[in-house]
Structures are given as structure tokens and as C-alpha cells.
Specification:
With 361 residues, the chain is mainly α. It has one domain (59-355): Rhodopsin 7-helix transmembrane proteins (Rhopdopsin 7-helix transmembrane proteins). 75% of the residues lie in helices and 4% in strands. The chain is built from twelve helices and five strands. The strands form two sheets. Strands 4-3-5 form a three-stranded mixed β-sheet. A hairpin with a 5-residue loop joins strand 1 (47-49) and strand 2 (55-57). Helix 4 packs across helix 11 and helix 5 (142-175) packs parallel to helix 9 (241-274). Pfam families: 7tm_4 (PF13853). Residues 1-10 have a biased composition (Basic residues).
């Protein structure tokens, strides 16, 4: 009896196995379909999975102006024209200063370096923004984002330091005119220019390393049209509070310290101008500073709004609007202001155009 029962059980089991192998259960089919669907979905995301189940971003997607699809064509035409005017204006200033010997002074050499820096500054961001306006979204690799941020910070810091150096140059010219050629001799100007570049390079390197020191796992959507500090730092896996605080203090050191040095220079300049007895002399002294002061107010005003706020990045729409102003409008302001408000540059421009017209005839 026992043998017959065991035989029946084994026969029943053997009879069930073929049916299960030929006709899988419905639960198995559902789980298999879900796994395939999940694989297809994740294969389209620029991320990879870690062992603990979190997702690491391998590239970013710049959202830019994707929320304004009806204005893309208008914005593209407007930004393209502004970019062309900016590049041509800065190149014109560099050419005039190089050609006209009357402008071979420290002030205008610093202006030529500033124009070159502004041209490279726009090259880092605006072409990428123009390409973004022609697409729904734009992907950028982690290394590409790191490089863009580094060069953007280098050139931005250099502009702050150059404007500070130009303020010091005006201070020496107005407060110590008899010693100007000795204090601002070519070797000193060259050393000051090298110091400006090394300072900007060091600050940008430290900030970029702080931002990219940990992987990113909070999605790859950057709420900006280029890789700026705040929107990229928000995607970091690690707690970014300490790094954000360190970057904030570095920004204060660059922006606020530079601006305070410029204010100190202009405090001495104003005191020296008020001691001039003739009204014509005071106007002439102040006219040499008006263009520089205008560029300083706009440049440092925009930089302060973006980088000197503890809640930087909390309002992406507002940050994008201000970023458009200081990446598109401010570089254009430099050649416009120095061409319209600086008499020496205007005279040199007319002289260069007349000379080139005479040569062509």
C-alpha cells in the first residue's frame, strides 16, 4: 500500500512538471513584462545604478528656456544680434588700442585685456544658449559641465579683479599724477595682470573642485541654460550645505572685497577732485572715471544678486533672468560705454577710421 501511494504521488508530480514547463503561470508573465519595461525605461535615462539602489547621474540636461516655447525664435534672434554686437564691439576696442599709439597707456591696456576677457566670457555661455534655443533640451556631459563652469568662473573672477585694477589705475592717475609713470610702469602692470589671472584661476579651481567633489544622484535636470554654481550643486548626492557655505564665502571674498577696494579708490579720487579749484578741471578728472564707474555698478550689481545671497538657486526663473543680463547685456555694455562716454576712445576711433579710409582710397 505504501509503495503504491508513493508511486501515485510521484506519477502525479511527474505529470505536473511538463504542464508547468509548457504553460508558465500568469504571475510569472506579469513580473517578466514589468522587468522588461523597467529595463527599457531606465536605458533611456543618463544614469547608472549603484549597489545600494541609488542612481548616479552620468550627464546633465540643461532645461534653459524650455518653459518658453513660444518665445524661442524671438529670443534666439535677440541674443544672436546682441552676441554679434558684443564680439564686434570688444574686438574693435582691442584693435583701436593696439593700433593707436596715444592709447598705449596702462588704463587702456587694462581695458583691452578686459575686452578680451569679456569676449571669451560670452564665448563660454552664449553659443551654448543659442544652441539650446533651437532644441527641446540639451545634454551635456559631467566633464563638459565641469569645464564650462571652470572657465566661466575664471573669466568672471578675472573681470572683477580687472575692474579693481582699473580703479587703482584711476586712483594713481588722479591722486598721484606726477608719479603715475613710475608707479604704473610696464613691469608693474605686467605683474599686476599676472596676479589677476592667477587669482581668478585659483578661485575658480577651488570652487569647481568643491562642486564636483561628490557624485550627482538627484536627477540630471539643471534649471539653467548653462552650468552655474547653484543649480548644479543642488543635484549633489552628499550634503551640500557646507560646500555652499564655503562657496558663498569665496564669492564674498571675490565680489565684495573687490567692490570695496574700488569704493576705497573712488573715495580718494572724489576727495582729490573736490580739491581741484576749476570746474572744468573737475569735469575732466571725473570724465576719465565715468565709464569705468558705470561698468563697475552694473557688473558688481548683477554678481551680488546672484552670488551674494544665502538662498542662491531658490528661484531658478529669477536667477535665469539675472544671468541673461550679466552674460549677455553686461559684456555689451563695456564697448558701448567706453565708446560713447570716453572722449579719447572716440577720437582714436575716428582717427583710425579716417586713416583706413585714406589707405583704401
Amino acid at each position: 500500500m505504501l509503495r503504491q501511494t508513493q508511486h501515485r504521488k510521484s506519477s502525479a508530480t511527474a505529470g505536473e512538471n511538463p504542464r508547468h514547463s509548457q504553460f508558465p503561470s500568469s504571475s510569472f508573465l506579469v513580473s517578466r513584462a514589468a522587468a522588461v519595461a523597467e529595463t527599457d525605461a531606465t536605458s533611456k535615462v543618463p544614469e547608472k545604478q549603484r549597489g545600494n539602489g541609488t542612481w548616479l547621474v552620468t550627464e546633465f540636461v540643461l532645461l534653459g528656456f524650455s518653459n518658453l516655447p513660444h518665445l524661442r525664435t524671438t529670443l534666439f534672434a535677440l541674443f544672436l544680434l546682441t552676441y554679434l554686437f558684443t564680439v564686434s564691439g570688444n574686438v574693435t576696442i582691442i584693435t583701436i588700442i593696439h593700433v593707436d599709439r596715444t592709447l598705449h597707456t596702462p588704463m587702456y591696456r587694462f581695458l583691452a585685456v578686459l575686452s578680451l576677457s569679456e569676449t571669451c566670457y560670452t564665448l563660454v555661455t552664449i553659443p551654448n544658449m543659442l544652441a539650446h534655443l533651437l532644441m527641446e533640451s540639451q545634454a551635456i556631459s559631467i566633464s563638459g559641465c565641469r569645464a564650462q563652469m571652470f572657465f566661466f568662473l575664471v573669466l568672471g573672477c578675472n573681470n572683477c579683479f580687472l575692474l579693481t585694477l582699473m580703479g587703482y589705475d584711476r586712483y594713481v592717475a588722479i591722486c598721484h599724477p606726477l608719479r603715475y609713470s613710475v608707479i604704473m610702469r610696464p613691469t608693474v602692470c605686467l605683474c599686476l595682470g599676472a596676479l589677476v589671472f592667477c587669482s581668478g584661476f585659483s578661485v575658480a579651481l577651488v570652487e569647481t573642485c568643491m562642486i564636483f567633489s561628490s557624485p550627482f544622484c538627484r536627477g540630471g535636470r539643471v534649471e539653467h541654460f548653462f552650468c552655474d554654481i547653484a543649480p548644479v550643486l543642488q543635484l549633489s548626492c552628499a550634503d551640500s550645505a557646507q560646500r555652499a557655505l564655503g562657496i558663498f564665502f569665496l564669492s564674498v571674498l571675490v565680489v565684495l572685497f573687490s567692490f570695496l577696494l574700488i569704493l576705497l579708490s573712488y573715495a580718494f579720487i572724489v576727495a582729490a577732485i573736490l580739491r581741484i579749484r576749476s570746474a572744468a578741471g573737475r569735469r575732466r578728472a571725473f570724465s576719465t572715471c565715468a565709464a569705468h564707474l558705470t561698468v563697475v555698478v552694473v557688473h558688481f550689481g548683477c554678481a551680488s544678486i546672484i552670488y551674494l545671497r544665502p538662498d542662491s538657486g531658490a528661484n531658478p526663473a529669477r536667477d535665469r533672468l539675472v544671468a541673461v543680463f550679466y552674460t549677455v547685456v553686461t559684456p555689451l555694455l563695456n564697448p558701448v560705454v567706453y565708446t560713447l562716454r570716453n572722449k579719447e576712445v572716440r577720437v582714436a576711433l575716428k582717427r583710425t577710421l579716417a586713416r583706413s579710409g585714406g589707405v583704401s582710397r
